[in-house]
Amino acid sequence: MYAILESGGKQYRVSEGDVICVEKLPVEAGDSVELDKVLLLSNGEEVKVGTPYVEGAKVSGTVVENGKGKKVIVFKYKSKKDYRKKQGHRQPYTMIKIDSLCGAAAEEETK
Q1: Is pLDDT larger for residue 101 or for residue 107?
Q2: What are the counts of helices (DSSP H) followed by strands (DSSP E) for the chain?
Q3: How many CB atoms are closer than 10 A to CB 78?
Q4: pLDDT at 111 over 80
Q5: What are 18-76's pLDDT values in tens digits?
Q6: Which of 35, 41, 100, 110 maximizes the CB count within 10 A of its CB?
Q7: Across the strands, what pairs with 48?
Q8: What angle do CA 18, 16, 13 make, to 5 degrees?
């Protein structure tokens, strides 16, 4: 069973027990979070596709940590003009452990 969800302008394919890194969310480590922008929900034999989101589908998880990614170096220069600018960037993220997938396709699997 899996779902495709949207968070922070990106799409993620998740199933129960997965750990994903999404764009930073305003939650603390240990809190539970519900993501309701589910684009697709599948239980193995039936696939439910949303327009754009699946009605009543939710993905719930627990926040593992808030952190920063690896440093990316941004280096700008203009040749022959003695212009150089070096800058670093670390993108903040929230790591989430997926606990359960809830929705119409998920409910039919348990019956």
Answers
A1: 101
A2: 1, 10
A3: 9
A4: no
A5: 999 999 999 999 999 999 999 999 988 899 999 999 999 999 999 999 999 999 999 99
A6: 41
A7: 41
A8: 60
Rounded-to-integer distance, Cα 38 and Cα 53, Å: 5
Q: Find out whether the peptide bond into 92 is cis, omega within 30 degrees of 0.
A: no
Q: What is the pLDDT of residues 3-14, one digit of tens each?
A: 999 999 999 999
DSSP state of 31: -
Q: Is 91 left (phi over 0), alpha (psi -120 to 50) or beta?
A: beta
Residue 102: what pLDDT? 86
pLDDT confidence of residue 103: 73
Question: Looking up tokens 């599948």, which residue turns up?
Answer: 42
Q: Considering all CA atoms of the chain, what is the largest pairwise distance in Å, rounded to the nearest integer?
A: 71
CA distances 63 to 4, 13, 41, 50, Å, are: 18, 17, 22, 26
Which residues, other chains included, contact 98 with Cβ-Cβ below 8 Å and sequence gap of 6+? 14, 15, 16, 17, 18, 19, 20, 59, 60, 61
